[in-house]
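Lab notes, practical 5.
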Amino acid sequence: MTLEEEKMALLAELEGQTAFYVDKIKRLKELLDAEMELLVSKKSEIQGKITRLNSQIEGLKPFFDLVGRRSSLK
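Output from the prediction step:
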């Protein structure tokens, strides 16, 4: 094999390896994007639960105020 042929063979091998790793990186990006979407969805779900709990707490404040006033009258 001549130097030129060897050089061309190495370049072809490197191009193949580069394509292989580019595909792996693209797949990894797809997986990370999917994971990010899931995390954003979970975050929204948790924020909704926090909002509902805060509303329930606000709704119970008058009750606790009333109970607190009754205890102080005793």
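Observations recorded by the TA: The CA atoms of residues 40 and 53 lie 20 Å apart. The mean pLDDT is 92.
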